[in-house]
Design goal:
Length: about 350
């Protein structure tokens, strides 16, 4: 495979980590320079590839050889974040849904380096430790309580969630892995109840990811086109015809969200569902340290965090009003997970040294 890495800085570091963030659609790659004494990390090189075009283990072998031979950078460790569930030993992942299969022990034998696996939202969670105003956009101002729990939630190809707690020993926020995307979703008003029936009639379970994700956009759009209230919007609708022909591709729904009335309504409903999910997660975790949003949908379409979103966030009972003080931020840097994966590898290596 022809590998081209974009250089971000000409600086040289004695310790370098190869980090990958393997998503359902895109795989991000980065070479991270480390100053361990100062606990500093810097992205030196990066690129991205279509996940479906690579076999991860073989790709990592190629990457290590390319970086060490062509860039003269010695890789000390590899950290791979994956959009999938790891086994209990955290050395194997086999996701049929995302077609990801990695055995870190076998990969270590091939490249003769330590390989760490983690969930993609764990990597994003570790990156929260180094976020600043350059890679954050504040959606709702609030009062952040120092060292209090934080939450992370993001919709892209799928849906990811994580709770973060502050570890006094490492002085870092540590993310807990989660498969909250598989939790059940509950609908409220009449049209939402009809959407629930639409989803479950196809023998699909009503999971949170069925509604708040790229797949959720497809589902909501298709539901609206079959709902009697919106059929008049289909007459002579060239955008609908193109979207239908594409099997309700979420990319086209997004492309026409300001032209096609069904796409516009889809995004309004999506925004409401997203806000409700975030609000409930905040109530469950008492995340007064802050709420962090991620994922390609919000980054590419920040307007979904506008009026409908904020109106839904504000719908609180008297016993829920305390979460109005929780700040909400959007993570705008899509490469930040690479540094998060590197931080995880650093902490694991340090723990291993301490145990010796």
């Amino acid at each position: 495979m022809n590998i081209i890495l974009e250089q971000h800085t000409p600086k040289k570091y004695s310790t370098n980590i190869l980090a990958l963030d393997v998503g359902g659609t895109i795989t991000q790659v980065g070479v991270i320079g480390i100053i361990e004494q100062k606990n500093e990390q810097e992205l030196l090189y990066s690129t991205e590839v279509w996940s479906e075009k690579i076999q991860i283990s073989n790709f990592v072998v190629e990457l290590v050889e390319h970086v060490e031979t062509n860039l003269s950078i010695k890789i000390s460790t590899v950290a791979i974040a994956v959009a999938a569930t790891l086994n209990s030993e955290r050395n194997f992942v086999n996701s049929i849904r995302n077609k990801i299969k990695i055995n870190s022990k076998e990969l270590e034998k091939k490249i003769r380096k330590r390989v760490f696996l983690l969930n993609d939202f764990e990597a994003l969670g570790y990156s929260i430790n180094i976020l600043d105003k350059n890679n954050l956009k504040t959606i709702i101002k609030g009062t952040e309580i120092k060292h209090a729990p934080k939450i992370l939630i993001g919709a892209g190809t799928g849906l990811g969630k994580s709770i973060l707690f502050f570890d006094k020993k490492t002085k870092l926020y540590i993310p807990l892995p989660s498969e909250g995307c598989d939790a059940d979703y509950s609908c409220q008003d009449n049209i939402e109840q009809e959407l629930c029936k639409f989803i479950t009639k196809g023998a699909r379970r009503l999971r949170q990811e069925e509604v708040v994700s790229g797949r959720g956009l497809q589902t909501i759009y298709q539901f609206l086109t079959e709902h009697k209230k919106y059929t008049q919007d289909l007459k002579q609708n060239k955008f609908y015809e193109e979207i239908k022909k594409s099997k309700y591709d979420s990319v086209l729904i997004t492309k026409y969200k300001n032209k096609d009335p069904i796409s516009r309504k889809t995004y309004r409903l999506f925004s409401t569902f997203y806000a409700r999910l975030i609000k409930n997660f905040a109530l469950e975790t008492l995340s007064s340290g802050g709420i962090y949003l991620a994922g390609g949908i919000a980054i590419r379409n920040p307007e979904i965090l506008g009026k409908e979103f904020k109106d839904e966030i504000k719908k609180l009972s008297k016993s829920q009003k305390f979460i109005k003080q929780y700040p909400i931020h959007l993570i705008t840097d899509k490469k930040i997970s690479l540094i998060g994966a590197a931080i995880y590898a650093q902490t694991e290596l340090q723990q291993t040294r301490n145990e010796k």
